[in-house]
Amino acid sequence: MRREPTVFEKHLWRRLSGSQLGFKFRRQHVIGPYICDFFCPQKGLIVEVDGDTHDAEADARRDARLAKDGFLTLRFTNRDVKENMEGVLETILQRLRTRAERWAGDVPHSPTPFPEGEGKV
């Protein structure tokens, strides 16, 4: 697991953290063998920020595997985040608004356990 996010991930996290879009996101969330840059558990939405070294074929296989489990992955480039943050946020928000909830009932809950120490009161 990468301990230090890229500058572009930091910039996006500043806009996603604290439920600023009206939805909670987790950073560096593990789903199976994958580590997702950002994850909204309520909607099953994964957001990835890709640098120049990403392997498009491997990313496509990963996204297809996660889609089989009901997750949707949105991918943005470092350039997108740097030059079009508002467009990135609008795309994420549009998907959040139109995507179905992952669980039923009035009280949302986490479908996966919290990492050690997270979520304790």
Computed structural class: alpha+beta
Contiguous helical run count: 4
The main sheet orders its strands as 1-2-3-4
Q: Which spans have pLDDT < 50 for at least 5 consecutive residues?
A: 105-109
Span between termini: 25 Å
Rg, please? 14 Å
* SS strand fraction: 15-25%
Please tally the β strands and state the result: 4
Largest β sheet strand count, sense and barrel closure: 4 strands, mixed
- The residue-averaged pLDDT reads 88
Helix residue percentage: 25-40%
Write down the secondary-structure element order: HEEEHEHH
What's the overall geometry?
Answer: globular
Description:
The structure is a single chain. The protein is of the alpha+beta class and 121 residues long. The chain is built from 4 helices and 4 strands. It has helices at 7-16, 56-68, 78-83, 85-98; strands at residues 26-31, 34-40, 45-50, 72-77. It has a 4-stranded mixed beta sheet, with helices on both faces. Strand 2 and strand 3 form a beta hairpin. The two termini are 25 Å apart. Mean pLDDT is 88; it is low at 105-109.
Outline:
This protein has helices at residues 7-16, 56-68, 78-83, 85-98; strands at residues 26-31, 34-40, 45-50, 72-77. The chain has 121 residues and is of the alpha+beta class.
